[in-house]
Write a structure and sequence with these properties.
TIM Barrel; about 15% strand; about 300 residues; disordered N terminus; 13 helices; globular
Length: about 300
């Protein structure tokens, strides 16, 4: 693993591949004043591809999948659902394809067990924004467990912030359910039980909508706290819960309202993700890139 040079915040500003947006994001989250400055300036949000969308072709040909995504027009990605690969190899493959990794889905337990190793791994890849895909399994049974999970996330977020990284939480539908002994949703409890500087909300727009929540209202309620969101579209089916995921712009999400709220709240990245859909992953990935490129 190559040696890295960090300033007192733990951010590697000497890396030639660090983008201006990555540096701004890292600096901005380390202080509320800097973060407010970014939001006030309303910079245009970046767009990226959640590689989980291409997990099936990547199983057969990871280098080819990355290259094809770049040839399609993607420049930034979130690492998730890819074959297990050493950090330096991931970085080399991304460089060869012409891609930059700006975020990753990670295991909280891995960070709790091997913090320094995990930080070094993801900084080598280039992902300063990291998020678990769900609450830890041992913290979901009841309200007390959920609050215990919130404390663990808050503590890890503080450590990551000191290391120049940012921790977010990615929702599915269950976070908008309630425990019997609390009138708030699990999502609202999590936001209330953690500090904004330690835990951001990686709002998955489609799953929030499918759960009956208003993603536009969520974004507006969390100014400065949802810098990275998952741009995903859905045709909800509340009766049978068989929601249909579709390419961006083809579902029920009110994207004009989402983008307006995002500008107000300081969204930095719209990361397109689609778990499944009609046709091949390449079909809906192409359509969604075309949509985001024109709209975001």
């Amino acid at each position: 693993m190559t040696s890295l040079s960090f300033d007192s915040r733990g951010v590697d500003f000497t890396r030639p591949d660090m983008t201006r947006r990555q540096a701004l994001a890292a600096l901005g989250f380390l202080g509320l004043a800097s973060q407010a400055g970014l939001a006030a300036g309303k910079p245009k949000a970046g767009i990226a591809l959640q590689l989980y969308t291409l997990r099936e072709p990547a199983k057969a040909d990871l280098p080819g999948t990355l290259k094809r995504a770049a040839d399609m027009g993607w420049r930034y990605v979130q690492w998730s659902g890819m074959p297990v690969t050493p950090a330096d190899r991931i970085k080399a493959l991304l460089d060869q394809a012409g891609l930059t990794c700006i975020a990753a889905h990670v295991s909280i337990e891995d960070f709790e067990r091997n913090f320094e190793e995990e930080v070094a791994f993801w900084k080598t890849v280039g992902a300063l924004d990291v998020a678990p895909g769900e609450m830890m399994k041992d913290c979901v049974e009841n309200l007390a467990g959920w609050k215990r999970g919130a404390r663990r996330l808050d503590e890890l977020g503080a450590k990551l912030r000191a290391a120049g990284m940012r921790l977010s939480f990615h929702n599915h539908q269950m976070e908008f359910e309630k425990f019997l002994d609390d009138s708030r949703t699990k999502f609202d409890i999590l936001m209330a039980e953690t500090k904004p500087e330690n835990l951001a909300a990686e709002i998955d727009i489609a799953w929030a909508l499918a759960a009956g929540a208003d993603p536009v209202a969520l974004i507006r309620r969390l100014p400065g706290r949802c810098p990275v969101v998952h741009a995903k579209d859905v045709i909800p089916s509340p009766a049978d819960k068989q929601h249909t995921l579709v390419a961006l712009g083809q579902g029920a999400v009110k994207w004009n309202d989402v983008f307006a709220a995002g500008r107000e709240s300081g969204i930095e990245w719209y990361i397109y993700e689609q778990d499944r859909g009609a046709g091949t992953p390449w079909d809906f990935t192409r359509a969604s890139l075309d949509f985001l490129s024109k709209q975001a």
